[in-house]
Every structure is written in structure tokens, then in C-alpha cells.
């Protein structure tokens, strides 16, 4: 079990408030759509850039950033001064690497410093964008020492993206395609010699002329419909889930984990519904059931879980029933991508509350502003100076808590009985 899993929610919230950096983690996926690495992105205008990056280095030392990325390979950007002065910590953390701009190649002292870092095992990635790399003496000093290069797929035409990827691959450099924000670009990238792909394609459904749901997804929608119809209570929830042994196993394993620190073990779904409340348990059943869409990237479900938890926390000023609905709205905001079908088509099968469907289909109602705020946070931009620092600090704390909760819950959602 992860370190985060052994922390109670109250401890999580306290730690998040004290330590949270205004950052987000953006996944890079390999050819199997499994996680290759995270990129740590700082929120725009959150605070002084150098001070923020210095704090980030400190959180590497105390382990907080490692917990945010679950110990996976991670890249972040650092200022020139920090790279020259305070990178010793990275030499003891081989899972953390540095993102570099092409301009760094013009500074011989920095290149020498980076070369020593690379020799000691620090991963380096050149964020090349659309810079010409083939036989370009201006960037050659960096190409000789970096292990990875990221290309901007949104700025390069398909032929250039292919030829540049092949050129780098022939040099023995691992290539990452960035800004892959639609499925057409993603499919073009699938045939290239790439180490990983990164972009908004992950959070979007693939366009289809005629939406068709596979049998497994229809079965999932039938379960979700049963959870909505008639506002089922603890007994009814137990009856709905009892025939699905795997779903019950995941659900009870999660609620009985150390994360929730319950005074006694809950032995049935009905007991769990009585203890936590039917509305909350219904949301967790959604969560565990959605993990059954096993052909979807794990990072997609994690993103939906993070949105759900953030929406619930942002709705703290609302009545209890609306907080649970906010959770559902956040979770279902990526239902089209998880089901690989248009949102209106998917929701046609579900008798959702009007407030939830309005937020998902029309961007209206009480939950629409919450989802807008979450998407702005995911994009790394809360409109800069328009947002008060205390709002950014609160969002950072909520995001950190949400990632820890999502990673914990996903660990159980992904389990299978022995």
C-alpha cells in the first residue's frame, strides 16, 4: 500500500494545506497507453517563478513531490540559476529529470553542468517544440547529452514530425510527441518511433460517425442506471451489487483500507451504505465500476477521480446532497472519453439529476462553474492576476488531496481477487 494510502483524509487535508505546491501533473503515455512519465507544470502567475521552483526542489528532498507522482519518472522545468546552483538533490533522485529549452545550448557553463548531471544519472529532456534539430549546430551541444527530446506535434506538419522523430531515433535519442490534442494526430503518432505521447487527446472521446457501445459498456450503463433509478437505499444498493463479486471485492477492500481508518470492518455493501450514506457509496460504486473499462488508459480514470474529488471539495458550501452530486458531475465529466461515445449519447442511457446533466451537456447549472474551475486548473491557468493568491493556495491543497485520494482509490479499483 502506498504512503498516501496509510494517511487519513483529515491528515491529508492538513498536509495538503501546509505543503501543496500550485502544480499539476501531466502524464506521458507509452505505446500501450500506460504511464511513461509525468511532467510537473507550475500554475501561471501563481507566485515568483524562482521561489516556486526552489520550493519544488525542497519537496523532492522531503518526499512530497515523489508522493504526488507515486514515485514515477518525472520531468520539471528549473530556472538557469537553480540549475547552476541547486541541482545536487536531483543527483540523488534518478526518477526526477529536467526539461530544457533549446536556448540552454548557447550557455557553455550550463551545458557543462548539465553534462555532469547526465553522467550521474539525471534524466534530461530537450523541449524542442518546432525548433529544427537536424544538423543544427545551435542545439547540437544539448542533443549530445539529453536522453529525451519532446517535439510539438501541434506545430509540425506530419512529414516533418515523422522525419524528425526518425532522425532522433537513429541517433539513439528517445522521442516524446507533445501537444497531441486530437485523435487524428494521436493515430499518426502511433506509427512513429516514439517513446511516449502527451496531450489532451487522453481526455477526449474519439469521434465516431455512429456511436455503438460494446456489450461490456452497455452492462456498465445498466448498472449505473440501476444506481440512479428510485434513489436506492442501503438494502437496494446491496442487492444491485451482490451478483458482481469483483465489484463487491473492490468496494469493500477500498472502504476497509487504512486510508479511512474505520473503527470496525464493514462486511457487506449494505453495511458500507449505512456507515457512509447511500449517496456517497453510490458514487464509489460508480468509481469501482468504471475501472471495468479495462481498455481505457489508467490515467484517464485517475483524471476522472481527481475531478470528482475536486468538485466535491469545491462544493463544500453547498448542501450535502449537492456535494455528492458535484462528485458525480466531476466523475462523469470524462464519461464520454471513458465510454468512447458522445456525451449526449451516453447520458441518454442514464436518468441523471437535471443539475448534473445540464453541467455536462450545456455547461449550465450550479456545477458548471466548478467544472470550469477544475478545467482551468488542469490547463495550468487560473487567469493569472484575476485570481487571488488564497484561491490558488486552496486549489493547490484541493488538487494535492484529490490526487492522493484518486491514486489510493484507483489502486483498489484496479485489483482483482486472487
Automatic annotation (TrEMBL):
Highest taxon listed in the record's lineage: Bacteria
Pfam families for this protein: HDOD
Domain HDOD intervals: 213-398
InterPro entries noted in UniProt: dGMP_Pdiesterase_EAL/HD-GYP, EAL_sf, HDOD, RNase_Y/CdgJ
Entry-linked PROSITE patterns: HDOD (PS51833)
Gene3D superfamilies, per the entry: EAL domain, Hypothetical protein af1432
Protein name, per record: Diguanylate phosphodiesterase
Amino acid at each position: 500500500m502506498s504512503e498516501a494510502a496509510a494517511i487519513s483524509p483529515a491528515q491529508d487535508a492538513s498536509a495538503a494545506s501546509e505543503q501543496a505546491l500550485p502544480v499539476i501533473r501531466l502524464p506521458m503515455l507509452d505505446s500501450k497507453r500506460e504511464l511513461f512519465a509525468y511532467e510537473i507544470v507550475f500554475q501561471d502567475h501563481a507566485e515568483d517563478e524562482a521561489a516556486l521552483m526552489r520550493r519544488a526542489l525542497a519537496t523532492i528532498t522531503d518526499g512530497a513531490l515523489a508522493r504526488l507522482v507515486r514515485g514515477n519518472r518525472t520531468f520539471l522545468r528549473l530556472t538557469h540559476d537553480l540549475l547552476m546552483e541547486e541541482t545536487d538533490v536531483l543527483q540523488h533522485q534518478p526518477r526526477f529529470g529536467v526539461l530544457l529549452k533549446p536556448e540552454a545550448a548557447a550557455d557553455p557553463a550550463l551545458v557543462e553542468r548539465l553534462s555532469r548531471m547526465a553522467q550521474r544519472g539525471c534524466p534530461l529532456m530537450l523541449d524542442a517544440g518546432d525548433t529544427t534539430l537536424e544538423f543544427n549546430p545551435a542545439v547540437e551541444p544539448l542533443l549530445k547529452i539529453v536522453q529525451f527530446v519532446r517535439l510539438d506535434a501541434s506545430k509540425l506538419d506530419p512529414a516533418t514530425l515523422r522525419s524528425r522523430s526518425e532522425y532522433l531515433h537513429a541517433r539513439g535519442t528517445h522521442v516524446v510527441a507533445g501537444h497531441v490534442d486530437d485523435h487524428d494526430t494521436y493515430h499518426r503518432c502511433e506509427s512513429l518511433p516514439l517513446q511516449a505521447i502527451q496531450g489532451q487527446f487522453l481526455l477526449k472521446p474519439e469521434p465516431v460517425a455512429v456511436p455503438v457501445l460494446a456489450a461490456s459498456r452497455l452492462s456498465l450503463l445498466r448498472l449505473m442506471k440501476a444506481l440512479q433509478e428510485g434513489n436506492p437505499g442501503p438494502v437496494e444498493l446491496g442487492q444491485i451489487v451482490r451478483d458482481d463479486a469483483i465489484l463487491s471485492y473492490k468496494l469493500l477492500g477500498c472502504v476497509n483500507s487504512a486510508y479511512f481508518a474505520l473503527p470496525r470492518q464493514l462486511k457487506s455493501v449494505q453495511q458500507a451504505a449505512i456507515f457512509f450514506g447511500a449517496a456517497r457509496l453510490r458514487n464509489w460504486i460508480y468509481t469501482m465500476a468504471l475501472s471495468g473499462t479495462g481498455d481505457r488508459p489508467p490515467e484517464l480514470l485517475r483524471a476522472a477521480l481527481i475531478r470528482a474529488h475536486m468538485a466535491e471539495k469545491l462544493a463544500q458550501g453547498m448542501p450535502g446532497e449537492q456535494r455528492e452530486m458535484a462528485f458525480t458531475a466531476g466523475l462523469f465529466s470524462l464519461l464520454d472519453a471513458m465510454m468512447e461515445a458522445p456525451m449526449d449519447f451516453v447520458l441518454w442511457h442514464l436518468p441523471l439529476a437535471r443539475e448534473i446533466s445540464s453541467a455536462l451537456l450545456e455547461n449550465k447549472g450550479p456545477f458548471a462553474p466548478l467544472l470550469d474551475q477544475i478545467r482551468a486548473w488542469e490547463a495550468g491557468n487560473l487567469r493569472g492576476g484575476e485570481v487571488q493568491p488564497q484561491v490558488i493556495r486552496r486549489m493547490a491543497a484541493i488538487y494535492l488531496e484529490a490526487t492522493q485520494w484518486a491514486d489510493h482509490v484507483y489502486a483498489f479499483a484496479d485489483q482483482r481477487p486472487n
